[in-house]
Amino acid sequence: MVANELEKKLNELEKALHSVSSALTGIKELLSDERTLFKDIPVEKLGVSANRKTRFLKTCIICGIKTIPDLLTYTKEELLRKPGMGIGTILDVSAALKREYNINW
What we know:
Elements: H1 2-32, H2 34-37, H3 50-63, H4 68-72, H5 76-80, H6 87-101
Helix pairs in contact: 3-6
């Protein structure tokens, strides 16, 4: 009798634990998805140095980059081939992403 009750309670506890585990996994996936976290942040907000910002923003307009997730769809090498983008600008943008949003790009 007591063993049956304990087994029922253990089964209920296992189900609850599984539900919590699934929920935590979903939350972890959401938090790790930078596209979701930064979807509303425009690239204009990045702290790129003034002398490079104009060229960077022109390149963003040419490529259709409006938000940080749009920017993250490109690799550094791809953007380096775009007009107006030099290695200094790429490094500046990369440093700004790391400094302001802790994104390794």
